[in-house]
Amino acid sequence: MFDRVAGGFLGAGLPLLVSSEVTASVVVAIGLILILLAPGRASLLAALALMLKSPGGLACLAVLVCWIPGLVLSIQPFRSLSAFGTTAGLMLGAGLIHVFLARSAEARALCLKALVIGGLACGVLALIAANGGSVIYAPFRGRAFEPFQAEIFIKYYASAVACLAPVVLLAGLRLGGAWRSAALIYPAMALAIILSLRSGAGLLGLVAGAVVFALIAAGLMPRLRRPSFGLLVLVIAVFLAGLGWLFAHAPAPPPLEAMAGGVYHGPIETPLPLALVDAHRQQIWGFSLAQIGNAPWFGHGLDVSNFLPGAHTKIAAFSQEFVPSHPHSWIIELLVDSGFIGLAGVIGAFVVLAARWLGIARVDTLRAAAGLGLLAAYAASSLLNFSLWSAWWQTEFLVLCAIMLALPSAPEAGRAQRRIEAGPS
After folding, report:
1. CA–CA dist 313, 107 (Å, integer)
2. How confident is the model over 91-148, as pLDDT tens digits?
3. Residue 315: what are its φ and ψ, rounded to 5°?
4. How far apart are CA 45 and CA 103, in angstroms?
5. Which residues share a beta bridge with 320?
6. Alpha-carbon distance 202 to 352, whole Å?
7. What is the DSSP letter of 307?
8. ∠ CA(139), CA(145), CA(146), 5° rounding?
9. Minimal CA–CA distance to 341: which of 375, 385, 292?
């Protein structure tokens, strides 16, 4: 009973981001509490300790080690310590979810079903909210039955569904039957949500995830295997080159003396095409990139990029601060906060994860395609949107990875599903 209920909470939690980040966090936390209350928790903790010695566990530890100098040298040590502790806790929580789901076929089945049902139901709610149905959506936001600008409050959900899309699709394909038919709807629903919310970050994430998913899935066909992987390498190379060009041409910030008084009235340069990067984001990137040279190796401290001198100076041209909350790009944010060492640790962890999925591709191509699609969606969407230190954003990625990595290979999954359907002998 504990396994089934916990699996259901874990699967339903992330789609519930449509209600709020707090709602989703509470539901996932209940799932974790049930795991810790269930019989056999000692063996789960032992399995978690063993997992820390795996390549994935060591990669996570390496990330934390690379961030330690950012704690010592931080301009706001307590804020940096909070960000460090939150990430470490979320990593451990995701590890516990992984070993729990890997142990229980019943929990996996309920988790996947809850993910499909929750994804579709919450997707419908998001579409209603974003297309004039805010009165219906209001109670899910803790508001009275009255109209409000719901699309402003749930714009973040566009990036959430970009990450959910490959995982919900895989869940339906694994469950089969009507579940498969239902899950096939979700990618189109995700696109509709993103377009309704007019989210460039969500669209970039969805497209990146879809391209990677399709190219890896093409590996199922022997004649397409080598061309698809070659095209994937080319796409990544072109994308990185384009990203480097954008960062290299970001505008330089004005000198600090021009920001005296808290408001900058001078001219604003926009060297990048406004169709690609809006004027304010160009200023955010330019200001943040200029800070890297002051602390290139270990950064200024975790989660402090918007507390650097001049960051809260308002730009009179459009009444916005140079860095209102964060740099709106995980690469720039990590360079500012943790330096090249901290960024290298995170990229190394992503490489280890990608290598793990490529290894799985030999025996379970669709699961690997979904895993790499998730990684691409998360990394691409994060280039334009939330702070890397946002707990809910980290939770979505880590929990979705934990769920998919806990799934057995496709032939073994079929045998497990038949045992569940047959019931106790």
Report:
1. 51
2. 999 999 999 999 999 999 999 999 999 999 999 999 999 999 999 999 999 888 889 8
3. -90, 115
4. 12
5. 315
6. 25
7. G
8. 120
9. 292
Kindly give the pairing relationship between strand 314-315 and strand 263-264: parallel
- State which amino acid sits at residue 43: S
Decide if 205 contacts 159 (C-beta within 8 A): yes
H-helix or E-strand containing 263? strand 263-264
Any bridge partners for residue 314, and if so which?
263, 321
Within a 13 Å sphere around the CA of 132, how many CA atoms are in the beta-carbon half? 0
Separation between Cα atoms, residue 219 and residue 229, nearest integer Å? 8
Q: At what angle do helices 200-217 and 222-248 cross, to 10 degrees?
A: 150
Q: Are 164 and 172 contacting, i.e. CB atoms less than 8 angstroms apart?
A: no
Residue-wise burial string across 369-406, b where 16 or more C-beta atoms lie within 10 A, e elsewhere: bbbbbbbbbbbbbbbbbbbbbbebbbbbbbbbbbbbbb
The amino acid at residue 320 is Q
Whole-model pTM above 0.90?
yes
Sign of the alpha-carbon torsion through 259, 264, 269, 275: positive
- What spatial distance separates the first Cα and last Cα of the chain, rounded to whole Å? 18
31 touches 13 (CB < 8 A): yes
CA angle, 26 then 180 then 130, to 5°: 50
Site of tokens 């009507």: 178
User: What is the C-alpha to C-alpha distance for residues 291 and 286, in angstroms, rounded to an integer?
Assistant: 9
